[in-house]
Fold MFS transporter.
Amino acid sequence: MEKTQQRKGILPILFLGYIAIYIDKLVIGVIAVPLAEQLNLSIDEKSYIFSAFFIGYSIMQIPFGYLNDKLGSKFVLIISLSIITVASIVFGSASTLIALIAARFFAGIGHAGYPTSSARTVTDTYPMEKRTWAQSILISTSGIASIIGPLLIPIVIGAFGWRGAVFCIAFLFVLALILVIWKLPNTHKEKQQSNQPKVKAAMPFWKVLTNPVVVLLFIAMCSINIVLYTIANWTPTYLADERGVSLGMISVIIAIAGLGSLLGSFGTAYIVGRFFQHREKRVIFVLALITAGSALLVYQSESIAVLTFWLFLCYMCSVMIFSTMFTLPLKRLHETIVGTATGVVNTGATLGGVFAPMIVAQLVGAFGNYQAVFVAIAIAALVTCVFVVFIPNMKTTQKA
């Protein structure tokens, strides 16, 4: 009975940590507007801050994935949340560009451990048929964070400045860390102490890297995250600089787009989990086409209301793509390599976050507006679609 009660508490604990993770990721674009004004940062300098985060994120995805398989997810969660907490406090205290970049770099390192260890925990806790549901519920936090973050952060910024907003986010990480230490069971230790027969030896690392599912998802995750992080991090700057929208209205627009993210995550949990098991490629194909079309229509829309609708649709469909792809390693790869494989796939995802600011800075610098940026978003969505099509079907991957 005690173990059953522990299992019931796992998802809420991971859920809270994910809320903090996604608020930190997604509201940095909103925080960057007053931060850049106060410190007089250019668009290139803002891109360095954004990219530093994802460089740190990318570097540690695979090492943290490996540590999950070897030492367990609880250990990695504690390390991850501790690093993010310290990095957030440093970022909120920083006054120079170098300090801001360094703080976000280490925040990225901390963030790298959370998705892989959460995926490892889900794999250890839930049966195959419930993993899409559990993982989609966790990813739905991106939508919740996209709604509450942009709505609350401007209020906090108005009262305490952008530094106060960063410290409030750091408090969420402290709370999540306490709950992980106190309440999260050590599933890795439980497995080692159980009398269950040992699972087969882990696949060599080079075989994980060359697994076709891992390689294709690495590329597809990179391209869809170019879409997601361009929208999340750069839409506030686009709306402020090119459309002349106020920070308050920007927050409302981003929150409405965040509702699309929330519906997309829950839609994945219900629709894909219930009706399209092992037919995920078809879902991603259709969603990628809708994402590409709606991205182009965001820029073409003269009305802010119409722009908001297309942004909502673009965000919803791209999050559905991400959520669907994120569950594929959990269902198609052996449990002994889920942590490492998820780390590799997430490295591709975070490289998308590295490339997105560079792409935006180069395109805006070359063309003087954001039209080419939205064309790039559409192309990235179509690239995702192409590589997902080549992922082997379930029958061929079960033995992998």
The chain has a mean pLDDT of 81.
